[in-house]
Structure to design on (389 residues):
């Protein structure tokens, strides 16, 4: 059962990232909307991280901070790429 | 050596990630990016460099590529026409002024209006538009990959072409518009019908810039001479500049790959050692970074209409 839950968790993450990728491509030519799509995807990714670790009973501020930092890094890199 | 290992490999004793992907390191990367962003924008403003403008799109190259495509199908070359080029420039400027990205303006103005205003008497006319591209080859390639745009480029009834490349801000986004206008004043002898095919033409006139041309640029064979004798430069072309867009894009891709590798190495070594840690899921972070790679790859691909 635990194994199945973990697979489901990662499938959910894959769905989030796939949805974000498709949304980004769909809004080609509109960088503002594209950035919003990425922002939403990162938010969902952070939410996923918190939820996943909570279900594993391994949630801590350190873990949350890590997801926030990785998310912020990705957002900034996307902003840089879209700016140019 | 131990210090180097500690940077890239996780600590067994402290059950933490490698230094290169620790919280302070990630914060450091973010801080560095902010500083880079701020500095670059400051430099751009002080030197007049405008981010978002294409640096490698040239009329001569688009004309050459267009005619090369026509040659492949046994069609005659198109001649760069001043009236059409001025019309293309006016269309580009109208799009920037009106804030629209379409063949027909919100007020109903068609591309043919600009053609007629410049005194070009046509039976056949067409328009291709492009924006957000970084180089001439990519623009023509994108048009050729689209059936309707390809039809314009390979239009048998077209004899003249107008081209414009205009920088500006469109819908809160700095971009480079490419407008291609096609015109034919008489039907082709091979045509059996007199069907008028009015299609879109690109807007942005970057009239032959013979006097402004950068001698280091590759000159298309047999085209530049025609261009030089026909037109006076109507608009100063963008000076040949460092291609910041591609540089940033490639830098972001390399950095993402590097950080993904660091996370993968950290996760792999920790797993191999059987170290239990209270950290985020490495595979999730790598997934997000791969997502970043995919979308940055899509950035600046350009849009045609």
């Amino acid at each position: 059962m635990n194994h199945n839950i973990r697979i489901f968790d990662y499938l959910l993450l894959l769905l989030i990232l796939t949805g974000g990728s498709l949304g980004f491509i769909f809004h080609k030519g509109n960088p503002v909307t594209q950035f919003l799509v990425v922002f939403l995807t990162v938010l969902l990714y952070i939410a996923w991280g918190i939820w996943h670790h909570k279900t594993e009973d391994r949630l801590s501020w350190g873990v949350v901070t890590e997801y926030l930092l990785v998310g912020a890094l990705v957002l900034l890199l996307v902003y840089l790429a879209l700016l140019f | 050596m131990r210090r180097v290992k500690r940077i890239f490999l996780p600590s067994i004793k402290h059950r933490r990630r490698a230094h290169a992907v620790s919280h302070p390191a990630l914060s450091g990367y973010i801080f560095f990016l902010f500083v880079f962003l701020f500095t670059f924008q400051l430099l751009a403003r002080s030197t007049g460099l405008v981010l978002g403008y294409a640096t490698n799109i040239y009329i001569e190259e688009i004309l050459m590529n267009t005619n090369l495509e026509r040659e492949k199908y046994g069609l005659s070359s198109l001649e760069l026409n001043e009236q059409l080029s001025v019309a293309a420039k006016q269309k580009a400027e109208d799009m920037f002024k009106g804030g629209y990205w379409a063949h027909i303006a919100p007020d109903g103005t068609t591309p043919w209006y600009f053609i007629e205003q410049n005194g070009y008497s046509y039976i056949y006319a067409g328009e291709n538009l492009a924006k957000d591209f970084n180089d001439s080859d990519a623009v023509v390639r994108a048009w050729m990959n689209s059936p309707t745009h390809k039809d314009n480029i390979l239009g048998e009834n077209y004899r003249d072409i107008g081209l414009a490349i205009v920088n500006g801000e469109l819908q809160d986004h700095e971009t480079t518009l490419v407008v291609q206008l096609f015109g034919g004043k008489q039907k082709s002898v091979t045509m059996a019908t007199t069907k008028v095919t009015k299609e879109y033409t690109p807007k942005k006139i970057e009239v032959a810039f013979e006097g402004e041309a950068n001698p280091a640029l590759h000159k298309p064979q047999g085209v530049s001479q025609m261009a030089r004798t026909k037109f006076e430069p109507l608009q100063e072309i963008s000076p040949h500049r460092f291609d910041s867009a591609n540089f940033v894009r490639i830098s972001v891709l390399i950095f993402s790959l590097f950080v993904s590798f660091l996370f993968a190495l950290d996760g792999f070594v920790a797993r191999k050692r059987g170290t239990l840690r209270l950290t985020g899921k490495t595979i999730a972070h790598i997934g997000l970074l791969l997502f970043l790679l995919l979308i940055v790859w899509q950035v600046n691909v350009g849009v045609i209409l």
Notes: The first helix of chain B runs from residue 2 to 8. The CA atoms of residues 89 and 205 of chain B lie 4 Å apart. The longest strand of chain B covers residues 174-184.
